[in-house]
Description:
By secondary structure, the chain is mainly beta. The chain contains four helices and 30 strands.
Amino acid sequence: xxxxxxxxxxxxxxxxxxxxxxxxxxxxxxxxxxxxxxxxxxxxxxxxxxxxxxxxxxxxxxxxxxxxxxxxxxxxxxxxxxxxxxxxxxxxxxxxxxxxxxxxxxxxxxxxxxxxxxxxxxxxxxxxxxxxxxxxxxxxxxxxxxxxxxxxxxxxxxxxxxxxxxxxxxxxxxxxxxxxxxxxxxxxxxxxxxxxxxxxxxxxxxxxxxxxxxxxxxxxxxxxxxxxxxxxxxxxxxxxxxxxxxxxxxxxxxxxxxxxxxxxxxxxxxxxxxxxxxxxxxxxxxxxxxxxxxxxxxxxxxxxxxxxxxxxxxxxxxxxxxxxxxxxxxxxxxxxxxxxxxxxxxxxxxxxxxxxxxxxxxxxxxxxxxxxxxxxxxxxxxxxxxxxxxxxxxxxxxxxxxxxxxxxxxxxxxxxxxxxxxxxxxxxxxxxxxxxxxxxxxxxxxxxxxxxxxxxxxxxxxxxxxxxxxxxxxxx
Length: 476
């Protein structure tokens, strides 16, 4: 069975075994994600061709505002979407000939556009943001609030040039995380004292006319950046050309599914175990940190929990995968990376780990258990009414008919180390099971959590076979 069977999605939105077909509800991530960054909401009060939460030249200010004002730079696109999107629309951004052949690049921002000069490169032409500004346009303020430092920005783009510009072939995107005070881009007098972190790609190519997935890491280390203030806002700006006024009228930049990516952390308590769900929202892995092993859980037909797959330190855990972690007590950070492979769903198992938030849906035919220690016994116990499930927590989901067969709790740690078949003894049969596991014969090599790791190094290796033989021979 392929590893992608680990990918579990929120079943309250989808029926079992189906692929997600709805857009992300970014309202759940206020202060962590930009409103309408999947570009699905076009219900603005005044400009139906401008996505809610974003601004272009329809609300431009400055001394040249009357010339630059336009509602023709942005529009919704529903026919040309990238593979894997779960939405129904994307943003279409285009330039415009504003005056005597002067091209105003198509630009959209979470801040506000300012037109102050007929010279395209003049800093009086810029985007700006200030969270004390109470003005709004299209029902949205001219800023996007942010309360935490993301590690990267992820976005899908498709860029084509109407007329190839050999010296100016690229579109661009930038993202400035600020302390909330007035910030503009290009900056005035090179003042970056408001910037806490910054990400940019000014070489977005046409890529043969194909969609491309960009991953822009944020830089927080510049000597010119503010290292003491907390993040308050983020200004993201896209333009159809990286150089002011250097595009062509036929340029098109499609934009979709922008996401701010965060590192994730988990604390393993004294028992040495914790559950974890990679809550990155779309197409991202996390890397298992040193000192941790992650287990995908299944069950035998008799109900005993078994390891279905193992993810060791340095390996990637797909988005939305739910696992059991084993490691020394302490806090661990999971770094996030881009994940390009298609996400599929396998929900055929009688018992498996799922996102904790699935419990809210209470899928018919299943019961849910969380990892707890009760009476000094570590195991999976039924989720109680009123229990608050954390977003990164994972639950054990068990078919009801199986759960009714003596399932008040399932021990994670066996009473006897090395007893793989659960008969109360360590014998050559257990050695055979462990060897089969090492040979990837999963049907014959099934084992319980931790009982194959005889030397307790958070890995299943030939060293465990040697130690198990020593136990049998009585030399341990």
